[in-house]
Design a protein that fits this description.
16% helix
């Protein structure tokens, strides 16, 4: 038995740390370019763009996570 995933691509998700609300999902990253999402200036730009036309205030803290799902192949 092994765990497998459908694609070699990686998903990055950004959450509001206080409410655990999912704010942004960035799909189709590779292990080589996933790190481009993590620098503070990139996170800032992504959050500002996401909230640009919303009446919500920016979250105080955000959590950036790599999230992948693996399925048991029996």
């Amino acid at each position: 038995m092994n765990y497998i995933k459908e694609s070699p691509r990686i998903t990055v998700k950004i959450y509001d740390s206080d409410t655990e609300e999912l704010l942004i999902t960035i799909s189709n990253r590779s292990w080589m370019d996933v790190g481009q999402v993590f620098p503070a200036h990139n996170v800032t730009a992504l959050i500002k763009e996401e909230f640009k036309n919303k009446k919500k205030t920016l979250p105080k803290k955000v959590m950036v996570m790599v999230a992948e799902e693996y399925e048991l192949d029996e």
